[in-house]
């Protein structure tokens, strides 16, 4: 391939990123990856119901290969960064596109969730930071024990403030996903009268699954359904 | 009926604007919204009001030319389904209503005066590629290409766009995606539009971005206020064509050289 | 003055081909050196500007709206005729020509009409190639319908929005040329004067409607495509902005005005509901295919429609015209409705309306079938009146819809001013005294895409053009003239608003120069209009100033011209002592009350010459000859 063609490929990639549709595509793809991660992450976490040994073994398994672990972490970090950067740039476009606000603006058919993506998104970002410091690195955990994932989870969720934070975060995640999952398909150009209602249902189902699955853990802990023996 | 109006008054693009309050007594339910403003304006002219009559754009008053449009209580064209403000009648309001009238607000639509804005950005989007490049005289017979009825109907659904700007006005991001996609979809559904299809999507979307319209967040406010019922399905088509154009575009083999 | 119509002689079928062959051509390399001004961006203007841009001329196109896509051509609903004979039902160019001449009640030029029919087929091809989504059959071919009582199906359509789709096609072609830099679009500019230099139209003066600045533009040729003047009646189906100003100012500079009194009144419009009414809305003529028109038999019967028993209803069209019934031509249906209302049998609060009843059709075909055929029209009626036509009969009344008159042009569309061309509804040319349904779009596009580009080229190649700039004294004079009028309007500082004058003018025109006219009424109207004109200039109240966006000032200039035009229309109607097409003089009717033409004395085009502010225009006649379609009496009994 000649240098000219290579240059134009780079140029086109940059141009695509610069266009709002390009950014939307990036948001859709990174969003999809993050939804996938959330699902896997939840499946892993649900092993808490199988007892301390299973969960702690799972924790050790994840950390057994540092190369894979850090590879995955960096990949996720890059994904989130792209998702955030695109979101931030699109958001700043919004205020550039309408510097004078309406004195009165009503909405008709758009959902509350769809209109508040710029609110649920940042909350989720701060939650992720908190979540990492809570159950991965432990700075915000009352009594963190690096090797005992099960104990960390049980003790962590008994704290009413942490419990509340997870509750709010899962609410935001629900709002974010219920619009985001369907919206990703629209951004990628998938909209067909036959399949769009099904995609909307898929978004709802997926949201219910993720929010329900994730929320069940702190609820179960709080009401001593699991880990009542941990002190 | 008695209606109170809070109207945005602004002398020209560079002047500061402000809300002014007006009472319109004796409104008939059979009046159109613009006819009610006509009555108010007649009164303002007769009273030699300092701000003069309220300027608003209008022409055909049949809902097809796309000239009219402003926000009524935060809703583009007043929010009545598939209705432009010239076709909106006062019977949809109640005696004593207190309404806020504002112009479309977007960087790409600077206010010219009161409720009138400059929508020439739309023309520039069309000029960037919203056509089939066929000069007069070079057309084959009208029946030379058979077009599936469904494709023709889908093209027509999108071609109906009147370019009023309500989609931009109602969008929290001031995005012109519905307008732009309507033209891309109109021509994209027809065989005549295929040779330039990807190029067209690329050029028009780039022009839309250059005009400083916001980005689409797929929330659907635009399709709810569109007087012609154009749907965001067209935006998906635009996204598809644009991505394809960006990713699959290539030079001809002749331009690749021998490297 | 002698009019030279430049109509070619010989076989009508080859007239246009021979004319084109005889035309001089501009060398391709020289085309960009020629500048063309096109005023108006409707079907005729946009298509002419786009095509001349494609040919390589240096074009400037002007419109008063914010975008060329707003022009009133956009509101045409029905369709566009073309002699394609796709339906194999016996149509041909010759038949379309014949129908149009006859429909125009033998007051149009045969040569022009034949050319129109001939070009009609090219228009469809061009529009399809542009991507105009005409209705299609399941097999993928173009669909046709019969329209306005034609016996063949030759009307192409795009739902009820044919005008919109054709205009957007032309608009897109125009935008393509704008992007290519061959056309410069000047929006929000209103043409206020034509500038003549050494016997050639060399430019225009216009007002920038955003800033109020008076601007001059010079060119080698000026093309007007500024539409019709139905708004002289105040209430019409025209857009609020439609006006006569461009053509009227050209008229005052020496262009003759042809057949001003020929106006078309459409029978099926939504009636007026109150004094505040600003315009009228047309309901497609197709409604008469299934709806039955009636009024109560008793004068002053104010009962609700449902309470009037069948035996007390008068289905007057079916009674008077048993063979055509509800499908009689537009002018006849309109006059009959007026007659019923004048007898005091009109319906609705104002008494100016007749019922268009679908109850029988709904019973016969079912509501679903009716919805399928007329759903969007019923919806529109409901939106405007708040009444449901599925349960209550519609109320309709005739309204002014189209003006056949306009600037007089020769066969090559040039006015009597050298270098000033006029296209579309703005000229008088092809429809005679009555226009057939679905022919307006055809004429606008024939003029714009095909005829004007050829004729303008011929003019440019045949003449010499001294370099002229906008600093020329003729431009300065015209600017001064425009400024003076603006100041006069702003300084009248009277009490009455422009709209109130316009409404008065409309009432006079509708009463005396509307569906039925007579000598006494027309004479009276001329006096009233002259008095109105005097009052207007003395006491009109135009707020604001000239150097800002000022909609009242824009309207004030337009109404001033409409008042003068109104007077000319009445004088034209008075001078034409016969009835033909849309022009119905009560003195000239058959014993059955039908229009009575006088071919011996009035087979001519009336072209009026401006003689200055103080004097009435003089009449110049262009005799019409009919070598192919022989004049006959129309009968629909």
Describe it for me?
The complex is a heterotrimer of chains A (231), B (259) and C (637). By secondary structure, chain A is mostly helical. In chain A, 76% of the residues lie in helices and 0% in strands. The longest helix of chain A is centred in the middle third of the chain and has 32 residues. Chain B is built from 9 helices and 7 strands, in the order E-E-H-E-E-E-E-E-H-H-H-H-H-H-H-H. In chain B, a hairpin with an 8-residue loop joins strand 1 and strand 2. The longest helix of chain B is centred in the last third of the chain and has 16 residues. Among the domains of chain C are: 136 residues, Succinate dehydrogenase/fumarate reductase flavoprotein, catalytic domain (Flavocytochrome C3, Chain A, domain 1, Alpha-Beta Complex); 115 residues, Methane Monooxygenase Hydroxylase, Chain G, domain 1, CATH 1.20.58. Chain C is built from 17 helices and 21 strands. A 5-stranded parallel β-sheet of chain C has the order 5-2-1-9-17. In chain C, helix 5 crosses helix 12 and helix 15 runs antiparallel to helix 16. The mean pLDDT of chain C is 95. Chains in contact: A-B, B-C. Chains B and C meet through helix 1, helix 2 and helix 3 of B and helix 3, helix 5, helix 6, helix 11 and helix 12 of C.
Set out the fold topology.
The complex is a heterotrimer of chains A (231), B (259) and C (637).
Chain A: H1 3-18, H2 20-45, H3 52-64, H4 66-97, H5 112-115, H6 117-136, H7 149-158, H8 160-187, H9 196-222
Chain B: E1 3-9, E2 18-24, H1 33-46, E3 71-72, E4 75-76, E5 98-102, E6 111-113, E7 116-117, H2 120-127, H3 149-159, H4 166-170, H5 177-188, H6 197-210, H7 221-225, H8 233-248, H9 253-256
Parallel strand pairs in B: 1-5
Antiparallel strand pairs in B: 1-2, 3-4, 3-5, 6-7
Chain C: H1 15-22, H2 28-31, E1 35-39, H3 43-55, E2 58-62, E3 80-81, H4 93-103, H5 110-130, E4 155-156, H6 162-179, E5 183-186, E6 189-197, E7 200-208, E8 214-218, E9 221-224, H7 245-252, E10 257-258, E11 263-269, E12 292-296, E13 313-314, H8 316-320, H9 330-342, E14 354-357, H10 359-365, H11 367-385, E15 394-403, E16 406-407, E17 420-422, H12 440-462, H13 473-491, E18 496-497, H14 498-513, H15 519-539, E19 540-541, H16 551-575, H17 599-602, E20 604-609, E21 618-623
Parallel strand pairs in C: 1-2, 1-9, 2-5, 9-17, 18-19
Antiparallel strand pairs in C: 3-4, 6-7, 7-8, 10-16, 10-20, 11-15, 12-13, 12-14, 14-15, 20-21
């Amino acid at each position: 391939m000649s240098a000219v063609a290579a240059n134009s490929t780079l140029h086109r990639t940059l141009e695509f990123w610069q266009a709002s549709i390009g950014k939307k595509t990036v948001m859709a793809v990174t969003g999809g990856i993050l939804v996938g991660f959330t699902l896997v992450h939840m499946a892993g976490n649900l092993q808490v119901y199988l007892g301390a040994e299973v969960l702690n073994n799972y924790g050790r398994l994840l950390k057994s290969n540092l190369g894979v672990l850090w590879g995955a972490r960096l990949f996720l970090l890059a994904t989130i960064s792209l998702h955030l950067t695109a979101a931030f740039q699109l958001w700043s476009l919004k205020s550039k596109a309408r510097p004078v606000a309406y004195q009165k603006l009503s909405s008709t058919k758009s959902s509350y969730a769809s209109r508040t993506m710029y609110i649920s998104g940042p909350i989720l970002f701060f939650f992720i930071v908190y979540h990492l410091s809570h159950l991965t690195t432990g700075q915000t955990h009352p009594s963190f024990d690096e090797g005992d994932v099960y104990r960390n989870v049980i003790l962590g969720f008994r704290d009413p403030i942490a419990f509340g934070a997870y509750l709010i975060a899962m609410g935001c995640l629900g709002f974010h996903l219920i619009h985001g999952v369907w919206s990703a398909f629209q951004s990628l150009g998938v909209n067909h009268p036959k399949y769009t209602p099904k995609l909307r249902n898929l978004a709802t189902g997926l949201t219910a699954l993720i929010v329900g699955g994730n929320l069940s853990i702190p609820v179960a802990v709080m009401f001593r359904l699991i880990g009542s023996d941990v002190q | 009926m008695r209606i109170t109006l809070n109207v945005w008054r602004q002398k020209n693009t560079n002047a500061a604007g402000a809300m002014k309050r007006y009472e319109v007594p004796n409104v008939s339910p059979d009046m159109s919204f613009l006819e009610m403003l006509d009555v108010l304006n007649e009164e303002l002219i007769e009273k030699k009001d300092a701000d003069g009559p309220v300027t608003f754009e209008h022409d055909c008053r049949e809902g097809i030319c796309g000239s009219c449009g402003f926000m009524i209580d935060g809703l583009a064209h007043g929010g009545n389904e598939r209705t432009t403000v010239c076709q909106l009648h006062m019977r949809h309001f109640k005696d004593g209503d207190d309404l806020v009238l504002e112009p479309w607000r977007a960087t790409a639509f600077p206010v010219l005066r009161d409720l009138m804005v400059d929508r020439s950005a739309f023309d520039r989007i069309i000029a960037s590629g919203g056509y089939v490049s066929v000069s007069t005289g070079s057309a084959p017979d009208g029946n030379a290409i058979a077009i599936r009825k469904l494709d023709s109907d889908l093209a027509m659904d999108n071609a109906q766009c009147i370019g009023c700007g309500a989609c931009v006005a109602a969008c929290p991001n001031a995005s012109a995606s519905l307008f732009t996609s309507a033209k891309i979809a109109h021509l994209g559904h027809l065989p005549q539009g295929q040779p330039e299809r990807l190029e067209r999507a690329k050029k028009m979307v780039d022009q839309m971005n250059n005009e400083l319209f916001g980005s689409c967040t797929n929330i659907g406010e635009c399709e709810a206020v569109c007087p012609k019922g154009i749907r965001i399905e067209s935006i998906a088509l635009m996204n598809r064509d644009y991505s394809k154009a960006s990713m699959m575009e290539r030079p001809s083999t002749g331009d690749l050289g021998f490297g | 003055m002698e009019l030279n119509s430049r109509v070619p002689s010989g076989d009508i079928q080859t007239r246009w081909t021979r004319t084109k062959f005889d035309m001089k051509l501009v060398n391709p390399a020289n085309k960009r050196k020629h500048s063309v001004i096109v005023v108006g961006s409707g079907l005729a203007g946009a298509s002419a500007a786009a095509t001349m841009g494609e040919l390589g001329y240096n074009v400037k196109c002007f419109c008063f709206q914010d975008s060329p896509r707003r022009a009133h051509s956009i509101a045409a609903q029905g369709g566009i005729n073309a002699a394609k004979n796709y339906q194999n039902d016996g149509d041909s160019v010759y038949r379309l020509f014949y129908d149009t001449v006859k429909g125009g009640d033998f007051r149009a030029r045969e040569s022009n009409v034949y050319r129109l029919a001939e070009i009609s087929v090219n228009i469809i091809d061009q529009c399809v190639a542009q991507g105009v989504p005409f209705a299609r059959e399941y097999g993928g071919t173009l669909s046709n319908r019969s329209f306005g009582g034609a016996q063949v199906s030759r009307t192409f359509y795009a739902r009820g929005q044919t005008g919109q789709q054709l205009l957007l096609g032309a608009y897109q072609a125009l935008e393509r040329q704008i992007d290519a830099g061959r056309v410069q679009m000047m929006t929000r500019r209103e043409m206020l004067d034509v500038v003549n230099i050494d016997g050639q139209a060399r430019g225009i003066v216009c007002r920038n409607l955003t800033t109020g600045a008076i601007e001059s533009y010079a060119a080698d040729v000026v093309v007007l495509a500024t539409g019709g003047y139905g708004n002289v009646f105040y209430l019409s189906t025209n857009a609020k902005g439609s006006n006569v100003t461009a053509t009227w100012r050209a008229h005052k500079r020496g262009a003759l005005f042809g057949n001003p009194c020929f106006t078309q009144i459409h029978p099926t419009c939504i009636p007026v509901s109150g004094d505040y009414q600003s315009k009228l809305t047309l309901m497609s003529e197709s409604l008469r295919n299934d709806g039955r028109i009636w009024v109560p038999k008793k004068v002053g019967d104010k009962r609700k429609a449902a309470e009037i028993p069948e035996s007390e209803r008068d289905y007057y069209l079916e009674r008077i015209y048993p063979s055509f019934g509800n499908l009689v031509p537009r002018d006849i249906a309109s006059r009959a409705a007026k007659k019923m209302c004048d007898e005091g049998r009109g319906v609705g609060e104002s008494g100016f309306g007749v019922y268009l009843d679908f109850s029988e059709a709904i019973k016969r075909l079912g509501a679903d079938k009716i919805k399928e055929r007329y759903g969007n029209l019923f919806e529109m009626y409901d939106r405007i009146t708040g009444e449901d036509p599925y349960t209550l009969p519609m109320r309709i009344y005739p309204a002014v819809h189209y003006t056949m008159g306009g600037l007089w042009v020769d066969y090559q569309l040039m006015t009597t001013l050298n270098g000033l061309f006029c296209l579309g509804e703005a000229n008088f040319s092809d429809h005679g005294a009555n226009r057939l349904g679905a022919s307006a779009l055809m004429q606008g596009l024939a003029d714009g895409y095909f005829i004007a580009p050829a004729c303008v080229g011929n003019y440019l190649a045949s003449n010499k053009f001294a370099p002229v700039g906008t600093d020329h004294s003729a431009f300065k004079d015209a600017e001064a003239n425009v400024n003076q009028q603006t100041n006069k309007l702003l300084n009248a500082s009277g009490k009455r608003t422009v709209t109130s004058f316009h409404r008065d003018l409309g009432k006079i025109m509708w009463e005396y120069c509307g569906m039925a006219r007579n000598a006494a009424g027309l004479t009276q109207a001329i006096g009233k209009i002259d008095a109105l004109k005097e009052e207007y200039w003395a006491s009109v109240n135009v707020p604001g100033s000239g150097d800002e966006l000022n909609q009242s000032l824009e309207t004030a200039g337009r109404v001033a011209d409409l008042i003068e035009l109104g007077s000319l229309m009445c004088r034209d109607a008075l001078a034409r002592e016969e009835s033909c097409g849309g022009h119905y003089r009560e003195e000239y009717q058959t014993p059955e009350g039908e229009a009575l033409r006088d071919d011996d004395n009035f087979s001519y085009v009336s072209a009026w010459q401006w003689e200055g502010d103080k004097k009435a225009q003089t009449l110049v006649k262009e005799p019409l000859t009919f070598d192919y379609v022989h004049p006959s009496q129309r009968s629909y009994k």
